[in-house]
Amino acid sequence: MGIRVAVAGASGYAGGELLRLVAGHPEFDLVAATAHRQAGHRVDVVHPQLTGLDLVLGETDPSTLADADLVFLALPHGESAALAAHLPSEVRIVDLGADHRLADPYAWAQYYGGTHAGQWTYGLPELPGQRELIAGSTRVANTGCYAAAITLALAPLIADGAANPADVVVVAASGTSGAGRAAKPHLLASEVLGDLSPYRVGTHQHVPEIKQATGATGLSFTPVLAPMPRGILATVTAVPARGVDPQQVLAQAYADAPFVHVLAEGRWPHTAATLGSNSCHLQATVDVDSGRLIVLSALDNLGKGAAGQAVQNANLMLGLPETTGLSVWGVTP
């Protein structure tokens, strides 16, 4: 008998990716998966890519999840905290929602609204010292997808003193799966195909998380919806605080990080290369005209940006090698 794992919110895109990863994990036994409207349906009906996974989605209720050793919460923002509060303290939890990411109650109220549920250990192992904190925690708040891509690109530059934290500009494009699986008119194929559209300009909810994780004090962030199912490509620019080779700073920061790859000079990240993996690809340069530092970051928003990151965190929490059950290589074409 392996480690007993349950997935709440298993009918969504991140939930489906979690099911795929958990079912293929050599140390995990998938014992429960829950949903709201899809409760009572077979997993392979809701997720046809999981044909042969003999499991019926249960109701999202603490009693359905309490017998697991570890629970993944892939619920809408604002729903995780109440459910987690009713699970036994010995059950390890990785929350893919935003409920426990932020330390500042004011930032929560400003960007999400409602009551702040308190902060858990932040689930990005590549930040200095964070791997050890995650390994010693029973409650971990998984990163946001944009936050993962941008933080991995920016945090080492600010920590090194190479980038001015007060002047960071980010434009990032994401696939439509980042908006969830609910039917929304602006996500219809007829609306998305052949189009790039910005949204939540200057007000995106990942801004306080990115500032908290990177040490940035001034951040302008423009997210863009791209006509593809999954993937994020972030362009991060900052004013240099001193003369530096940004690629060298990143290479040193991630020399021992199995899932973060600083590409060779002349190669630039693109989303297809990270599809289906838990990897983030980075490349950096200095703009010859403005002198600004530029870092390009690509990852799979359902992989390193969500489900893959969650499994990486779970591995650390359970004392397993963090790469267990995860791929560093993408699937293309």
UniProtKB/TrEMBL annotation:
This is N-acetyl-gamma-glutamyl-phosphate reductase. Belongs to the NAGSA dehydrogenase family. Type 1 subfamily. Its EC number is 1.2.1.38. Residues 4-135 form the Semialdehyde dehydrogenase NAD-binding domain. Catalyzes the NADPH-dependent reduction of N-acetyl-5-glutamyl phosphate to yield N-acetyl-L-glutamate 5-semialdehyde. One of its GO terms (cellular component) is cytoplasm. Pfam families: Semialdhyde_dh, Semialdhyde_dhC_1.
